[in-house]
Amino acid sequence: MGRIKILKPPLTILLFFFLASCAKEIPMPDYGFVTQPSMNAVIKGGELITVYLFENGKIGGGEIKAVNNGLVEVFTDGIMIDSVRNGDEGEYETEIEAEFDTDYEIRVTIDGQTMSASFRVPSPPVLIEATHIAFGGVDDEGAIYPGVEVVLERSMLNDAYYEVVIWLDTYDNLRPAEFYFLRDPFIVREGLPLALFSDEGVSEESFSVFITYTTNSHSGDAIKTYPFFVELRSVTEDYYHYRRSFYLNMNSQEELEPGLENSPADLFSNVKGGSGRVVSYSSVVSDLLNVD
After folding, report:
1. For 188-228, how does the pLDDT look when each residue is reduced to its tens digit (9 = 90+)?
2. What are phi and psi of 19, to 5 degrees?
3. Is residue 245 a part of any domain in this protein?
4. Which pTM was predicted?
5. Neighbours of 259 (CB within 10 A)
6. 3-state secondary structure the chain
7. Confidence of residue 31 (pLDDT cuts 50, 70, 90)
8. Is 146 exposed, middle or buried (0-12, 13-18, 19+ CB in 10 A)?
9. Number of structural domains, the chain?
10. Cα gap 223→174, rounded to integer Å
11. Is residue 249 domain-resident?
């Protein structure tokens, strides 16, 4: 399969994490809660380990503030292999390239307070085939949605986790497609409209998932389509849980009423001594799929 370079997202997106999500941020009042440091990182196999530090309210509200006076240390097998002192707008980029099937620990010290998180970089998944389906499904209003069938190899690990991202080539930039009308059994059983799933129960060497999507552009009764790449990610269990909690958090915010003492659904955190999440994934990208 061919590869493309997925652009590194800016800090503002990383703070709320993963993909240029269509979820909107709801303004919340500042309840005066004590701030606490937060460590965040989405580590991609084969790329430099980069950590983001900031302070935010423990429960909700208040302004997010980048932390630039921290110390970030990276360990493997109990040995420190790199350290970065003082960040740039909360960003701490190490010189360590995340190796596949390797365990790491990140320790952060801010004003004498230490927090840490451990993770393992998964092996890249095996994408066997990705096929564009012009007639993926029809909604209740008769609109026709395209789809893609993704055939992948089952991992040798028990209950491995995966995510699919469709990158639309709109000729002036790449942007992720929005999933719609998802009905594949592997996705339906997860209970959320995300292209995030596991291979639990799969005994064959390979299996497939079918994903319908929208480009949010119409051509008559059909969705206007663009050439696209399929990115298949093998993700850690922590990544899986965070993505789910992120979706629930953003959707619960839509039900909040500004000014009232209510709060969104909790976000998953795996940081000891602080808050945040440090998760990892590895991915492969298909060749460009034409839709003509």
Report:
1. 999 999 999 999 999 999 999 999 999 988 776 678 899 99
2. 65, 160
3. no
4. 0.84
5. 9
6. CCCCCCCCCCHHHHHHCCCCCCCCCCCCCCCCCCEEEEEEEEEECCCEEEEEEEEEECCCCCCCEECCCCEEEEEECCEEEEEEECCECCEEEEEEECCCCCEEEEEEEECCEEEEEEEECCCCCCEEEEEEEEEEEECCCCCEEEEEEEEEECCCCCCCEEEEEEEEECCCCEEECEECCCCCHHHHCCCCCCCEEECCCCCCCEEEEEEEEECCCEECCEECCCCEEEEEEEECHHHHHHHHHHHHHHHHHCCCCCCCCCCCCCCCCCCECCEEEEEEEEEEECCCECCC
7. very low
8. buried
9. 2
10. 18
11. no
Sign, Cα dihedral of 123, 124, 125, 128:
negative
Inter-residue contact 215 to 228 (CB < 8 Å): no
Across 64-88, b (16+ Cβ under 10 Å) vs e yields eebbbebbbbbbeeeeeeeebeebe
Whose structure tokens read 């995030």? 196
The range of the structural domain enclosing residue 57 comes to: 11-122+261-281
